[in-house]
Amino acid sequence: MSRLLLRNHTPDESGRVHHVTPDSAGWACVGFDLYQLETGQSVSGHSADRETCLVLVAGKASVMAGDQDWAEIGDRMSPFEDKRPYAVYVPQGAAWRVRATSALELAVCSAPGLNGGIPVRLIRPDDVAASVRGQGSNTRHVFDILPDSQPADSLLVVEVITPPGNWSSYPPHKHDQDDGGAETQLEETYYHRIDPPQGFAFQRVYTDDRSLDEAMAVENGDLVLVPRGYHPVGAAHGYTGYYLNVMAGPRRAWHFNTAPEHRWLLKPT
């Protein structure tokens, strides 16, 4: 199995399914945890030097972060309900706690907190910009949870829904070197969900020189690491794909470079 593919599995006693740190991934910035919590179960955290974005992928919860407290948030029981998510931004140095008030799928996204001074904030569905990218079988639906236009030190967080049979993160693009406004260096994780859950998608991660070239069959709940290179995703016919992206790097901006041999696909038809 690819070292970039982390398979879904039964949660541990704390409810955690996936646990990625910079050390475990072999990179510098992105951390990611995925929890499947039962009603009444709680999880908490605190970091002196890392910021966090708590994303309610599905379910409802009461959330405490810093000196803020929200009794119950969450408006969808599945990421496939065509509803934008709730999330909470937590700066470095602030503690947080999440208590599930229903079955809860919680993503804990983290990256270095560089400057501090950004307050805790609730990101409501109305705060999340929705857009459609691509056309035809390259159409996908995007929810920008924490884009570079909103305050944070390092984190970029986005959800994408890929209709059955469509491609996403396509034409293949990369963001693995710092080249001003042309490209930024960003590590990335893909947390995948599939609807219906017995389906699958494919993801390829590869570089121009093919020193990295891995193709993976991705199933419901799997996680893919993208340390560098291009990383397109294809959803199988009959199955809708969802992924939650977490990105971070030395500079907080999303500039990408499309593979030269595939740029013809960007021309208007």
From TrEMBL:
EC? 5.3.1.30
Q: Which Gene3D superfamilies match?
A: Jelly Rolls (2.60.120.10)
**InterPro entries associated with the record:** Deoxy-glucuronate_isom_IolB, KduI/IolB_isomerase, RmlC-like_jellyroll, RmlC_Cupin_sf
Q: Which UniProt keywords apply?
A: Isomerase
Q: Name one GO molecular function term.
A: 5-deoxy-D-glucuronate isomerase activity
Tell me if Isomerase is a UniProt keyword of this record.
yes
- Gene Ontology biological-process entries: inositol catabolic process
User: At the top level of its lineage, which domain of life is listed?
Assistant: Bacteria
Q: Does the keyword Kinase apply?
A: no
Protein's name in the database: 5-deoxy-glucuronate isomerase
- Organism, by scientific name, is Azospirillum cavernae
